[in-house]
Write a structure and sequence with these properties.
single chain, 479 residues, alpha/beta, TIM Barrel, seven-stranded mixed β-sheet, four-stranded mixed β-sheet
Length: 479
């Protein structure tokens, strides 16, 4: 977990916020939002909202009353207390890529397997900068569709001692992962007191919450586990092409989802989620790392703070097919505003490639280097007598050099961030050592990390109970 104490980069004026406020209020009250689960419709009707079939038209003031019930900050517990995190305020928490069905290993693009999932768990455990493997870091296509959520949760729980995300494919999947968290942390009461899971629920933009997301939302909310309520917005496809219109739609979708969580369980933690980018208007393909997505991040961070909610957004997003310059500069185009906006929960931090279709081993390493570099850049400077180094000037004098000065010798080990991926050899040495590019060096690093991986300790009774539960449920689901 990183404490981002730098000032936030806020670009919305009071006048702009007023326009957005009017916009989302009109959407929820005049157009409405569809909810595709009968239980959600019933709850919203009983709460006094106007229901027309699956469509609900809201009183904006009622929405704000509901949103105010959610905490502005909360804690998440990990199996290892040293890896507990805080969501909200100045805290930035980082998880791996989420959802890709494919993996890229070097030049080979292939279906993801459970072995890949386990490898990404091990890599996450190996880097302190990452707080969580996330959820579906890649789809293990070699496992049963009905029960693979159990294998993934078991791997995340045993191969890492960090928190992980819940599964939202079905309500039954959600119940299974909640039970795994209960086993890990000592029962339902323990995880209700301090949550252990955080789960992503996406709005089926525009203006519809589908049944699977809603049913999973209910299970996690009932268990007191935080929910990342996230509209899925690609401008030109799932929202209008203008950023203000998209921001207004995002507020309408996110706040109605948040309001529902507070009906299910008042006070359950929620995160204002944003997944906002645009399509290529020539091809229709999704675009990531664009100027528009960066502006959207800066705006949404400010909007979430306005509603006193933690914020999720950003990550290492890019549209590149391989680990190249495009993958790096588009990632930086997203990660820089991620930090500038003070994002609290960052999904897709490491490994994202090809618009989210691919989890890449090499990109994972590149992204951790970017993440650690930004952490160093966003650490405030200390201004004091020691950092001014006046004695060093007295020692070196005019026309000298500071390499051997006492001030330098006392600090040379940690005075600058030391990159683990970057190469700065001169050309002759670089050539002599094989002319290896960034991807070559990244491949060597992740392979070495896997070779050196150490399984975190787990209580044998907890492991036995966890193993028994997963085996029993898999047998039931796969029969």
């Amino acid at each position: 977990m990183f404490e981002n104490k730098m000032p936030r980069y806020e670009i919305l004026s009071d006048e702009s916020m007023a326009v957005l406020d009017k916009g989302w209020r009109r959407i929820v009250s005049e157009i409405g939002i569809e909810f595709m689960s009968p239980w959600a419709i019933d709850m919203l009707r009983e709460a006094g909202q106007v229901v027309e079939g699956d469509n609900v038209k809201f009183d904006p003031e009622w929405i704000l009353q509901q949103v105010a019930k959610a905490p502005s900050e909360f804690n998440l517990r990990a199996r290892n207390p040293k890896n507990n995190v805080h969501i909200g305020g100045n805290s930035m928490v980082f998880g791996g890529v989420y959802g890709p069905p494919f993996v890229r290993e070097g030049s080979v693009r292939r279906d993801a397997t459970f072995n890949d999932f386990e490898n990404f768990c091990k890599l996450t455990q190996s880097f302190d900068a990452l707080d969580s493997v996330g959820g579906v870091v890649c789809e293990p296509n070699d496992l049963s569709l009905d029960s693979r959520h159990l294998d993934m949760a078991f791997a995340a729980a045993t191969l890492t001692d960090k928190f992980f995300m819940g599964n939202v494919v079905t309500a039954e999947n959600a119940k299974d992962v909640i039970r795994i968290a209960e086993i890990l942390h000592g029962g339902r009461g323990a995880i209700e007191e301090t949550p252990a899971l955080i789960s992503l629920v996406n709005c089926n933009s525009p203006l519809r919450w589908d049944d699977r997301m809603l049913d999973s939302l209910r299970e996690y909310a009932l268990a007191g586990q935080p929910l990342v309520v996230t509209p899925f917005l690609l401008m030109g496809a799932m929202s209008p092409v203008t950023i203000p219109a998209t921001l207004a739609q995002q507020i309408a979708e996110a706040l109605t989802g948040v309001a529902l969580t507070q009906l299910v369980r008042p006070g359950v933690p929620v995160v204002f989620g944003s997944f906002l980018s645009n399509i290529d208007m020539q091809s229709g393909s999704p675009q990531f790392g664009t100027p528009e997505s960066g502006i959207g991040l800066l705006c949404t961070g400010q909007i979430a703070r306005h509603f006193k909610l933690p914020f999720r957004g950003g990550g290492g997003l890019n549209s590149s097919q391989t680990v190249d310059a495009q993958s790096a500069y588009q990632t930086m185009m997203t990660m820089m505003p991620t930090f500038l906006s003070g994002t609290n929960w960052v999904m897709h931090t490491a490994g994202w490639l090809e618009g989210g279709l691919v989890s890449s081993y090499d990109k994972f390493i590149l992204d951790v280097e970017i993440l650690q570099s930004l952490m160093a850049e966003f650490t405030p400077l200390e201004f004091n007598e020691s950092s001014l180094a006046f004695d060093a000037h007295l020692e070196v004098g005019h026309g000298g050099h500071f390499l051997g000065a006492a001030h330098t010798m006392e600090r040379f080990r940690d005075c600058f961030y030391r990159p683990f991926l970057t190469n700065s050899d001169n050309y002759e040495r670089w050539t002599r050592l094989g002319s290896r590019d960034t991807r070559d060096r990244a491949a060597e690093i992740w392979q070495k990390k896997l070779d050196e991986y150490v399984l975190p300790e787990m209580d044998s009774q907890i492991l036995a109970e966890l193993t028994e539960f997963v085996a029993k449920r898999k047998s039931e689901l796969d029969s």
